[in-house]
User: Which sequence fits this backbone?
């Protein structure tokens, strides 16, 4: 099974106190290494300050997974190996409940973002054999697939978008996989990640039929 690196973000309806989030992480994961807040502004003269750093506030690290909070987007982000992230997410709901919060009530939706490489067997040859451009010196180079016409309206929370692009240094052996997946339920996201390798393999195999 491939080990994919990616990001899963929980978008909240309203803001959360980073100190509270650190406590919830500690309750969920005893191995969590919590990070202290860093100044977000630098005073350059009396009454004058400038913003420094990125808007994300680092909360901690759980093994190889970095956890941060974005107070502008109300988003809790987990970055690292996807399988490790979903293991954390599976325990996170209970920890929120223990601290008096229901994830089902306070989270708007979850979003997975993946960009990783996968070894394949002549991906570029497979897609270029699917569509021919007569009288033009052109051929397919990458492939973009989605489960809905656009990520708007009723389709926003169901959106799944996959882009497959050959590695230009080895176009017949390696493909760059970019994937965006949204879900309103944490268990749906966990189940998708647990089957993500099979999903990507199915897409690649279908190109060879």
Assistant:
């Amino acid at each position: 099974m491939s080990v994919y690196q990616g990001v899963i973000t929980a978008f909240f309806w309203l803001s959360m106190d980073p100190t509270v989030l650190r406590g919830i992480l500690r309750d969920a994961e005893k191995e969590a290494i919590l990070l202290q807040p860093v100044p977000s502004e630098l005073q350059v003269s009396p009454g004058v300050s400038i913003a420094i750093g990125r808007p994300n506030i680092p909360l901690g690290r759980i093994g190889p997974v970095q956890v941060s909070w974005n107070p502008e987007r109300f988003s809790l982000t987990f970055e690292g190996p996807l399988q490790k992230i979903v293991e954390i997410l599976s325990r996170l709901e209970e920890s929120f409940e223990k601290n008096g919060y229901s994830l089902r009530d306070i989270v708007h939706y979850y979003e997975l973002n993946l960009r990783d490489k996968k070894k394949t067997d002549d991906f570029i040859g497979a897609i270029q054999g699917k569509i021919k451009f007569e009288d033009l010196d052109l051929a397919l180079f990458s492939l973009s697939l989605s489960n809905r016409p656009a990520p708007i309206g009723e389709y926003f929370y169901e959106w799944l978008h996959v882009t497959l692009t050959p590695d230009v240094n080895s176009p017949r052996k390696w493909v760059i996989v970019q994937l965006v997946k949204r879900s309103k339920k944490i268990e749906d996201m966990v189940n998708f990640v647990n089957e993500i390798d099979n999903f990507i393999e199915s897409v690649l195999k279908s190109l060879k039929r």
Notes: Residues 172 and 189 are 31 Å apart (CA to CA). The longest strand covers residues 107-119. The helical segments are 18-28, 82-98, 103-106, 123-128, 186-194, 196-206.
